[in-house]
Amino acid sequence: MLMLDGVVMVLCLLLGILLDLALGEVRKYHPLVGFGNLANAIERLLNKPAASRWTGALAWCLAVLPLVASSVLVLLLAQYLNYWLAAIFHIVLLYFCLGLRSLHEHNAAIATALQAGDLPEARKRTSYIVSRDTEDADEAYLAKASVESVLENGCDAVFATLFWFILLGGPGAILYRLVNTLDAMWGYRSARFLRFGCVAARIDDVMNWIPARLTACTYAALGKSRLAWQCWQRQAPGWPSPNAGPVMAAGAGALGLALGGAASYDGVAEVRPPLGGGDAAKAIDILRALRLVETGAALWCGIALLAVLFLSGVIHA
């Protein structure tokens, strides 16, 4: 069995989150950085002009399956040797996959720079986390970019990771983060990746479908619920991504902010569908978005604990 007792798994969930909050992401030799290097090597080897979707599927299997299988085998060995050793392994895997503290550090730095009136520093910090142009951006543009990043990455780096950990333990979190990383690297609709990255993008869509909607529900429950629900229903269908749409529309509505709209990428202006409704984003709204994600993570932990206690008979209906 890969999964431990339900109460122990919830304890692993809590400890994994606390470990991430205490230590943050690994500064050197992060496993996902190593995976990115591996994925780049595989892509260079297989993504030739004649590459098809089947080539992309093979590349995806070569990048993901050996690592997930290895995590399963190590976990089985740990569980065979010692029950608590397996629990520690689950915690470590979740820690490597979570990005809650990293999300806070990167975006809080943007808010701090904006509140100090240091636009050059805010532009530099924002360029670290988004692909849009920031060279001549004003406060509203930078704050909007940061808030959108918090909302979207709140799903990818936090809630979806927690979802797959709850479902499949440490290997589930590893599987999701590898899938999500490959989508970020290969899932472009460009001439280079249109066919090769198609499988990576579709698998990420499938694995994110339920977590994205649970994330949207979380945002709606903790913010302006009615507006969040309305924005989700009306605006999400117009967003290019089937999963980012509900997350960002509900999050923008929950915060009462007007997001989406114009953005510039590599000097090319792009008008995206509107998200949410209300005021333009400001520096303080970056911190509000971070609190929304962090409170949501605490809510998920509480629900998971109550569910396990109820199913184990400790709490009765």
From TrEMBL:
<feature type="transmembrane region" description="Helical">
    <location>
        <begin position="157"/>
        <end position="179"/>
    </location>
</feature>
<dbReference type="InterPro" id="IPR004485">
    <property type="entry name" value="Cobalamin_biosynth_CobD/CbiB"/>
</dbReference>
<dbReference type="Pfam" id="PF03186">
    <property type="entry name" value="CobD_Cbib"/>
</dbReference>
<comment type="function">
    <text>Converts cobyric acid to cobinamide by the addition of aminopropanol on the F carboxylic group.</text>
</comment>
<keyword id="KW-0812">Transmembrane</keyword>
<comment type="similarity">
    <text>Belongs to the CobD/CbiB family.</text>
</comment>
<feature type="transmembrane region" description="Helical">
    <location>
        <begin position="57"/>
        <end position="76"/>
    </location>
</feature>
<feature type="transmembrane region" description="Helical">
    <location>
        <begin position="297"/>
        <end position="315"/>
    </location>
</feature>
<keyword id="KW-1133">Transmembrane helix</keyword>
<comment type="pathway">
    <text>Cofactor biosynthesis; adenosylcobalamin biosynthesis.</text>
</comment>
<protein>
    <recommendedName>
        <fullName>Cobalamin biosynthesis protein CobD</fullName>
    </recommendedName>
</protein>
<dbReference type="GO" id="GO:0009236">
    <property type="term" value="P:cobalamin biosynthetic process"/>
</dbReference>
<keyword id="KW-0169">Cobalamin biosynthesis</keyword>
<dbReference type="GO" id="GO:0005886">
    <property type="term" value="C:plasma membrane"/>
</dbReference>
<keyword id="KW-1003">Cell membrane</keyword>
<dbReference type="GO" id="GO:0015420">
    <property type="term" value="F:ABC-type vitamin B12 transporter activity"/>
</dbReference>
<feature type="transmembrane region" description="Helical">
    <location>
        <begin position="83"/>
        <end position="103"/>
    </location>
</feature>
<dbReference type="GO" id="GO:0048472">
    <property type="term" value="F:threonine-phosphate decarboxylase activity"/>
</dbReference>
<keyword id="KW-0472">Membrane</keyword>
